[in-house]
């Protein structure tokens, strides 16, 4: 007799054992059957996390204070399985040559292991006796697993720079068409998956340590209690995922308040330079062998060859453990371009940047301790920002779009003018449609994915849809786009054969309107 416990329990415990050291799943199996199991003080397998996340940095340590798995056995079709992590800490640094070599060896070992696992799964699947309906139920349960992390701490140390990041709460769930957390069904062949990642109270601190490795005085956070929402949309056909798929990622924040002092500014420039020079660890792709795989195995292996959305790789390969069954796929749309389309968009309703002068002083009233005195210099407020990048490598197509809807640059402190007319250095008119910058994005509530106008891989069609008027509608102050595409070769009218090979062409467009610059004499004299 088919029992869900016999499928769900091994999948959940195997994933815990994959990322945690010295884990004995037999000790937790009975507790999980009762509905909940809790683990304390777990050390993470850092090399596995680096491989899964393709991180450009090396993890020095990783520790979980408490992890619990909650399974509502009596309501599995209406309530998701929940994984809750309370306090997870990481320490990271730049990788050296030894760590890069170790990661390369680990990647090769993982690829070999994955190939052996797929071969074994292909041999064992015909022997499976589970009914197709049960497989569909298990797939739904696994796909709707939710993850909740409370108190995430990440520390990065580089020479005398210490970067500390803290996230109060992180939630990762499946979502419905309205992008609300929900239990959703996934078609086994024609797959449309929506994932929702919500981050609350993100705080980033940037401090400087002395020669003894200690921080004398903690400075004000660079970013304080910011909330983000990330939406991930995956669309593909299991039978053609190796040749065609669509991945869309959108990140939205309502307010981003950045405060940088004169002591932090040089450190930020050094970090920015390192980020520009730093690239994620390159992973070699292993070609799939369709003759030795079933439909579900092909789906999972091809998805691994692409850039997985955040958090999805932790549950994606669970489907390999399930039996494979045929299912009739809906008719495909003939006008879809073949290839793996990838699109990412970053949106901010408001971004405030404040620059402060800072200096150390000894506070005698507090017992002679060292403190920092801040003096505001300049405040820049930006509204309606967006950055979008889409690409289709098979067609040599890359498109970057960005825009700005409002801008205000205002002197602060001693540089601030008393006269209202001289107060702002740069100013723009307020934009009429405050939500136009998210038009046709994953955050546009009037947009449906069936409307494929969000992207075009033909330059003439792209220009016809993204006119100058439309770009200024999305961002009336500043808008630009970059299109890299392949130009068809010219043909000879007599022979009708191309006279030259097609070439890549990069075309730029910059539009701007409504910006007023004002430089007052009072600002120039206050130095």
Search tags:
527 residues, alpha+beta, 17-stranded mixed β-sheet, 11 helices, 23% helix, globular
Total domains: 1
List the total number of helices. Answer: 11
Shape: globular
Strand content: 35-45%
Largest sheet properties? 17 strands, mixed
The total count of strands amounts to 17
Radius of gyration in whole Å, from Cα? Answer: 27 Å
Helical/strand content category:
alpha+beta
Pick out the low-confidence regions.
Answer: 281-336
Give the helices and strands as they follow along the chain.
Answer: HHEHEEHHEEEEEEHHHEEEEEHHEEEH
Helix amount, in percent? 10-25%
> How would you state the average pLDDT, rounded?
78
Please report the distance between the alpha carbons of the first and last residues: 82 Å
Written description of the protein model:
With 527 residues, the protein is an alpha+beta fold. It has one domain (69-90, 125-280, 294-322, 338-525). It has helices at residues 4-19, 25-33, 46-53, 97-124, 132-143, 265-277, 295-305, 313-316, 459-465, 468-474, 521-525; strands at 36-43, 58-70, 82-93, 146-158, 161-174, 190-208, 223-237, 244-253, 256-261, 339-363, 369-392, 397-404, 406-411, 426-428, 478-487, 503-512, 515-517. It has a 17-stranded mixed β-sheet that branches. Helix 1 (4-19) packs across helix 2. The relative contact order is 0.09. Keywords: Transport. InterPro entries: VPS13_N, VPS13B. Residues 110-119 have a biased composition (Basic and acidic residues). Residues 4-212 form the Chorein N-terminal domain.
């Amino acid at each position: 007799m088919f029992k869900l416990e016999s499928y769900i329990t091994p999948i959940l415990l195997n994933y815990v054992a994959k990322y945690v050291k010295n884990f004995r799943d037999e000790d937790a199996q009975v507790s999980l059957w009762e509905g909940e199991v809790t683990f304390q003080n777990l050390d993470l397998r850092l090399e596995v996390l680096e491989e899964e996340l393709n991180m450009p940095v090396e993890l020095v340590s990783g520790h979980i204070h408490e992890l619990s798995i909650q399974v509502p056995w009596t309501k599995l079709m209406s309530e998701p399985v929940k994984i809750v992590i309370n306090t997870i800490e990481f320490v990271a640094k730049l990788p050296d040559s030894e760590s890069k070599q170790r990661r390369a060896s680990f990647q090769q070992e993982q690829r070999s292991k994955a190939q052996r696992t797929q071969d074994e799964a292909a041999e064992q699947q015909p022997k499976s006796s589970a009914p197709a309906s049960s497989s569909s139920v298990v797939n739904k349960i696994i796909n709707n697993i939710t993850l909740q992390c409370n108190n995430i701490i990440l520390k990065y140390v580089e020479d005398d720079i210490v970067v500390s990041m803290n996230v109060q709460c992180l939630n990762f769930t499946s979502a419905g068409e309205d992008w609300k957390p929900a239990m959703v069904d996934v078609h086994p062949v024609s797959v449309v998956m929506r994932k929702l990642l919500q981050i609350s109270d993100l705080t980033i601190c940037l401090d400087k340590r002395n020669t003894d490795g200690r921080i004398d005085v903690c400075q004000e956070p660079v970013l304080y209690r910011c909330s983000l929402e990330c939406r991930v949309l995956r669309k593909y056909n299991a039978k053609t995922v190796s040749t065609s798929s669509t991945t869309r990622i959108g990140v939205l924040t309502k307010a981003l308040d950045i405060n940088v002092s004169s002591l932090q500014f040089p450190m930020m420039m050094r970090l920015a330079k390192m980020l520009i020079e730093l690239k994620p660890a390159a992973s070699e792709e292993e070609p799939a062998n369709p003759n030795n795989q079933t439909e579900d195995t092909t789906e999972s292996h091809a998805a691994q060859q692409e850039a997985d959305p955040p958090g999805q790789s932790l549950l994606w390969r669970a489907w390999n453990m399930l039996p494979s069954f045929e299912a009739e796929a809906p008719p495909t749309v003939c006008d879809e371009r073949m290839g793996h389309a990838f699109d990412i968009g970053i949106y901010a309703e408001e971004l405030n940047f404040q620059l402060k002068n800072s200096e150390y002083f000894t506070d005698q009233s507090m017992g002679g301790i060292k403190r920092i005195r801040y003096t505001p210099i300049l405040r820049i407020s930006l509204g309606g920002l967006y950055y979008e990048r889409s690409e289709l490598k098979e067609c040599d197509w890359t498109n970057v779009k960005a825009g700005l809807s409002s801008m205000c640059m205002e002197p602060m402190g001693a540089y601030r003018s008393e006269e209202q007319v001289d107060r702002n250095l740069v100013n723009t008119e307020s934009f009429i449609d405050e939500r136009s910058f998210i038009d046709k994005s994953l955050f546009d509530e009037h947009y449906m994915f069936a409307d494929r106008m969000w992207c075009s891989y033909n330059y003439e069609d792209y220009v016809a849809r993204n006119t100058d008027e439309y770009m200024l509608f999305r961002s009336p102050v500043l808008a630009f786009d970059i299109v890299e595409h392949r130009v068809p070769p010219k043909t000879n009218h007599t022979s009708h054969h191309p006279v030259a090979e097609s070439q890549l062409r990069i075309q730029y467009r910059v539009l701007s309107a409504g910006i007023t610059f004002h430089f007052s004499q009072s600002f120039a004299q206050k130095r």
